[in-house]
Amino acid sequence: MASSKWSAPLITLCLALLFRLIMIPASLLQIHPYASDDAIGFAKTAALIATEFSLSTPRSSTYEIWGIFLAPFWILPGPSSIYAHIFVAILGAIAVYNIAVIGQTLYSPHAGVLAALPVAVYPSIVLTHSTLLREAAILFGLTTAARLLIARPPQLSRHWAAIGAVIAIIFTTIHRQENLPVYGLAILSAVTMNYWNHRFTKTTIVSFSISSLTAIPFLGPIIKQINNLRSHRVGGRTKYLGSVQFDGISEIIVFTWIGIGYFLFTPFPWMVETLSDVPIMFESLLSFFYLLFAIIGFRILINRSPSITVGLAVGFLFGVSLYGLGTVNYGTAVRHRPMFLWVIFVFGAVAITSMFDSKSLPFWFTKRNE
Predict the structure, then answer these.
(1) Predicted TM-score (pTM) of this structure
(2) 202: domain range?
């Protein structure tokens, strides 16, 4: 009975929530960089919407959209900012829970714990999830959709799980519209893999590949947009490779892997300049360690759940490729990469736990319970 109350995902949820709640005072006092700039802007926008009941604010639509979700806390009596911070912390903790459930469903409870643990305790993620930034909400929506599609709760039918996943995808897309092609390609890849042996599927893929040649005339404007994005984002202490611009698709292809490496694993040791960079550097080293095992984990899962594994891998590779091309400072990368890192953590955790005998682990690791 005890194991059903203290399942592995529930333990990771409690741990993640505890860390986030502990760091809320630091965010309220604005003593770390994630609690300034955008976080302050979101709070002011939410307060303005709540007091004037109007969406016409001096801020951009990005602030207004997230401000709508935060505004109800400024209508309630009492410390509105604290309420909003707790709400965001809960969203971040649920995202950790979702990752643990996904890892548990795909392989084992202790794989779920190892997959969720970095997201639960990484200082950079904990700090962003204890502020009023959108990152916790985006990760919550993304992992909720993935959980409903991969690890559907037994009390939900497939129909309602699919509806819930669509709602979660819409929620996270509202806050970061550029991610919609990533979600679409990941789902399409999973469905294609599931029906790969059907002749219709293969015919459709060939037809789509041929028709995609019509996109060649649009490559020029796309490359120009990437260059403009890089020029706009370059600057600040944490910038890297800011002078890189692309003249053609061949240069983008060559640079993609470099961009992915910088996006996922900076700051590298030689890039550390301040004390605040040190914990992020160790996070990056641990993430790279997970990546090495993720390659093995992919091979294990491709035989157990081929469609899910391919969908996660394609979504991950497409997403980090896009963000690798458009990101030119690791301050931004630190905020954005958890959307994709959790896939590495799941694959890596599967490989690591496959090396150990589950019988030697505590009961709350070995009990399969969502």
Answers:
(1) 0.89
(2) 2-366
